[in-house]
Amino acid sequence: MTRQLVRETHLGGALVIGLGSILGTGAYVSIGLSASIAGDLLIWAIIIAALTALCNGLSSSQLAASHPVSGGTYEYGYHFLNPASGKVAGVLFIVAKSASAATAALAVAQYINSYLELSYWFVEFTSIVLLLVLTLTVLSGVRRTNWLNIIVVSLSLIGLVVFVGAAFSLPATTSSLPSSEIESLSLFHAAALMFVAFTGYGRIATMGEEIADPRRNIPRAVWLTLTLISTIYILVGLAVLRVYNPSMLEPDNFNIASLVVDSSWRWIITIGGVIAMMGVVLNLVLGVSRVVLAMGRRGDLPKTFAKLDADNKSAPIATWVTFLIMASIALMGEIKSAWTLSAITVLAYYGITNLAALKVTDEDRFIPRWVSVTGLLSCSGLVILAVLA
């Protein structure tokens, strides 16, 4: 009999996991990258991404409640579609989220190096050390990870509140790009990058085996996460546009604190951003390792990857494999290219999610089919437009 992880994560823990997976690179990196692409149309890019995420979140909730196991769309593809769909979804998830984790780790290291002005080897070395430390944290157990998430989310929110307040207390800049100069493809490219910033709810679904009362708690956690994050992103987006400076939003100059350089509160924003991105890495190591675990159980990856510890609270081998994948991407990638890779692969992943949701039986269904159809079309369209851009 296959050993199962303990269901010890409740609604509050699931919500914090979702928020902790989103707030870092989403608020502190992706909004800046999207602003450099979409200019004054940034808020529209956020709205498009939010609507796409809502449809996908509802599809994920439907699937996670109907089939609450670790592995997310990898398991849903197998259960509702076919083995090939499951395998493709598993690979897409691992690549997409490993790229996101590498982006966050590189971003933290790059900001530290902006003060030290050392060679790029320091950035790579620091990102690997960060990944290693947070991998060890995940191996210490989900319960301890949840408590750390609460601290991370709180400090992240404080940093964002200070940024919004500081931005609106400064005089508005006149350096933003007029909307007429932004091509429509750029808008959708920015929306694709912003979509990644919403996908933390996927970590809730991939941990279906560990969440208590999953049919009730998973949908509620996804709804609450998306509602809170949408509100936060729009506020941060408006603040970014108020103090927008294209020269400060180059792909490697990721920290929004640079936009309020004359503010005495900048150090709080900086600390909030660094801690938030560390929280993202923490949750991505957890989420990706659960997909590696599921693929090991089925034999799509070596079965040794599916071994649990003595208390059935962590998967050590799967977690170390996850670390190696993320570290490899961090050694090869740059912030913008890694984030773009994450965007394209995660949109394709959620396309499979929506296809699987359409196969849920009527007696188990609690969302209308048109939601999943809309999610599928949105994911497909953003992938195509992002590639063309």
Verbal overview:
The protein is an all-alpha fold. It has 13 helices and no strands. The chain has helices at 11-38, 42-66, 73-81, 83-116, 120-139, 142-169, 184-196, 201-206, 214-242, 266-298, 316-332, 335-357, 369-388. The model is unreliable at 176-180 (pLDDT under 50).
Label the structural class: mainly alpha
How would you describe the shape?
globular
Mean pLDDT: 81
Query: Alpha-carbon distance between the termini?
Result: 49 Å
Give the total of beta strands: 0
Number of helices: 13
Unreliable sequence segments: 176-180
Measured on Cα atoms, how large is the radius of gyration? 20 Å
Roughly how much helix do the residues carry, as a percent range? over 70%
**What is the H/E string?**
HHHHHHHHHHHHH
Main sheet characteristics: none
Strand content: under 5%
